[in-house]
């Protein structure tokens, strides 16, 4: 697993704790051997990603990217990428104030959300959204310390 801070901001977060939390979540879902890349970015960078991949020209809190076709061509023993998650630390900081919790907690919530998307969870329909929100709360209670 790799965490790269390319935020170019003065916002700091404990990446060791973030990495441990991500590993705990991957173990929970039987994905401990898969590779997850976490990018901690600024608004400018996430806006570029959002436009490049979704044609939406604005910053967002989190983006997740799954290498869907990769799994078709795997041989036994090959490393598998679960995907990439980009989190805007600037938006996370703003949201942490709005929701009245710490920046760390907001980043962990966003990371959980992104990992669930990479695992196939979605919130396009109301019942799927409720299921995903419930699972996020359960995982937060179990692993966030």
UniProtKB/TrEMBL annotation:
Print the keywords alphabetically.
Cytoplasm, Endonuclease, Hydrolase, Metal-binding, Nuclease, Ribosome biogenesis, rRNA processing, Zinc
Q: According to the UniProt entry, what is the EC number of this protein?
A: 3.1.-.-
Where along the sequence do coiled-coil regions lie?
none
Cofactor(s), by name: Zn(2+)
Enzyme class name:
hydrolase
Q: Chief localization class? A: cytoplasm
Q: Which GO terms describe its biological process?
A: rRNA processing
Physiological role: Single strand-specific metallo-endoribonuclease involved in late-stage 70S ribosome quality control and in maturation of the 3' terminus of the 16S rRNA.
PANTHER family for this protein: ENDORIBONUCLEASE YBEY, CHLOROPLASTIC
Q: What is this protein called?
A: Endoribonuclease YbeY
């Amino acid at each position: 697993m790799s965490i790269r801070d390319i935020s170019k901001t003065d916002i700091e977060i404990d990446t060791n704790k973030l990495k441990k939390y991500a590993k705990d979540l991957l173990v929970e879902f039987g994905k401990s051997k898969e590779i997850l890349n976490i990018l901690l970015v600024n608004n400018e960078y996430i806006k570029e990603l959002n436009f490049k991949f979704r044609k939406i020209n604005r910053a967002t809190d989190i983006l997740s990217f799954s290498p869907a076709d990769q799994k078709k061509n795997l041989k036994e023993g090959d490393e598998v990428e679960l995907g990439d998650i980009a989190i805007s630390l600037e938006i996370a900081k703003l949201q942490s104030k709005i929701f009245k919790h710490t920046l760390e907690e907001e980043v962990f919530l966003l990371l959980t959300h992104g990992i669930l998307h990479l695992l196939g969870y979605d919130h396009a329909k109301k019942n799927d959204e409720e299921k995903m929100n419930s699972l996020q709360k359960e995982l937060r209670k179990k692993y966030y310390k």
